[in-house]
Every structure is written in C-alpha cells, then in structure tokens.
Amino acid sequence: MRAVIVAAAVAFLISIFGTPLAIRAFTRLKAGQPIRSEGPQTHLVKKGTPTMGGVVVILATVLAYVAGHFVLATLPPDQLGAPTGVTTTGVVLLGLLICLGLLGFIDDFLKVRKRNSTGLSMRKKLLGQMIIGAAFGVVALWIPSAPPEKETVAAETVSFVKDLQWMDITRFGALLLFIFVVMAMSNAVNLTDGLDGLATGTSVMVIGSYSLVAFWQYRHWDVDPNYRGLYTYEVRDPLEIAIIAAAVAAACFGFLWWNASPARIFMGDTGSLALGGLIAGLAFSTRTVLLLPLLGILFTIITVTWVIQIGSYQLWQRRVFRMVPLQHHFELAGWSEVNIVIRFWIIAGLGVAAALGLFYADFLRVMEFE
Asked: pTM of the entire structure?
C-alpha cells in the first residue's frame, strides 16, 4: 500500500506543479490548439490554448513509477510478496501509455505546425494504433512469468470480473481482441476529449477504479503464500498494476486543476490516445475486459453514438444527433459547457460505481460459502 500511495502522491505533485511550466513552454513555442471551423462556434475563443499537455501526465507517471519502486525495494520480500524490479506487466502498461502518447504527440505536432485541425490522417493513426496494440499484445500474451506460475499479462480467455474459462478464444484470438480494445479505447477517449476537463475527469474515475481493483486482487492473489482465503485472482503483478493506475489517475487529477473550464492547457491527442491505450491494458491485465464497457460507460456512450451518427449518414444521409461527438450535440442544444461536463461526469461515476459493485458482488457471492 505504501508504494501505491507514494506513486500517487509523486504523480500528483509533479502534475499540478509541472503543468504551469508546460503551459509557459508550449505558449512560447506557439503550440496552440487549432479549432475546427465546423465545430461549435463557442470553441473559437479557445484557439491558441496550449495543447500536448498529455506530456505532463506521461512524464509524471514514469517518475512516480520509479518512486513507487524505490519504496518496494525497501520492503522485505516476505512482507511484499511481489517482485520489486520492472515487470512485463509494467512494460506493457507503460509501453502502451508512452507509445500511444508518442503517436498522439506526432498528430498534435502536425496540427500545430500546419495551423489547422488536420494532423495525421485517420488511416495512419489507425495503423499506428494497430501496430502498437499488436506489439504489446504479443508481449502480454507470449511472455509468461517464471515457473511455477507461468502467468501472462493477458489471458487467452475472455474475462468479466475474472477469466471466463469457458470462453477460450486461443492466443491469436486474444491478440486480435487486444488490438481491437486498444484501438477502440484510445479512440473513445480521444472522442470524449472535446470539452474542458471532460476526458481528464472521466479518466481519473476510470483509471482510479482500476487501481482499487488491482490492489484488491493483490490482497487476494493466488500466488500469495500468506493468503488463505477461498477466493483468489489469477492475475500477474497486481501490485504493479495498482501502482501504475494510481500514478496515472493522480497525474490526471493534478492536470485537471489546469484543464478544468476555462482550460489553460489541453491534453491533446498526446494525452487522450495514451490514456485510452492504458485503460485497455488495465482491462486485460486485471482480467476485466467485458466489465470495461460499463466501467468506462461514458466512453462507451460517446463512441456508440458517434458510430450511429456516421452509419446513419452513410446509409440514409440523415443525422440522428445535431453533431458528434455527443457532447457537441448538447452544446448546440443550448447546454453550457460546464453543465455538460458535470452531468457527463455523473454518468461516468454511475458506471464506475456499478462496475465496482459487480466486481465486489462476485467476491461476496463466493465468500458466502467459505
């Protein structure tokens, strides 16, 4: 628990005090966010606001991860019950965060350089997401831990609150699912990142809940010799997952101070792609893939409504919503930006609460018979 708290504290402090430095730096570099002319006209006043703030979140997370491992190194092995060095789980989660963040940074850089909202083409962005997802999917599925556990970061079975052993989709099927979820979530967070603080605040809730899930799994870990309970979780490096998730959630929380309306900096694709990819990695590493649509319900709703709008227009040349992503539909309906963000946060919170309730309810169901 100490390592998780230290990692979260370090990430929060670096983020909240480091973001103003990033604001000044990006302002001097004239790295302002281009605004789409066809979007809500109220957004035109945001033109020139520094972007690429996701760099702060990523940097804060990496430094916090190092700090958390310094704490782990001071604990006796019998008390820890987990490795203190860099793990394959850490490589997968931080790799998704950093590499997708780099892809988003390239997109943001091109937008700033061209002085318009067109960065990487959709095809190039999707290809980049696919390659990154495939690379870390292979690591997650093909590199097991040391014997006798031989546990991989991701499983060959589909999972809900635990692995569903009857839903074995083979290793290659799991790789395809891994790539799909990485691409879906990175784009879902990117679509949600349209109003000040909306994606950042939602990410705090979703990623923070994964920290709770992972730490709970660590306390009921199937390879922990000190645990004698009936209910165990077959996951790899749950403490590592908890440290990374807590660090990212805290970094986003600190960033939110400056990203809340009126935002002084945007996270850009640098942050949204990175956070989405990390959330996908957390779902696989905690074995809660089918729980993710509920846990990230706001991301799910915004993505599904975007697909409905595109599909409806392509098939019947009719729009279901005034504009997508969904938050812009409500802007055009007359809702204020702050009202939309707060109400969408409420929806996100309800999804997180329901998902955590289902996760814990399964534990209680088994414990009743212990």
From this structure: 0.94
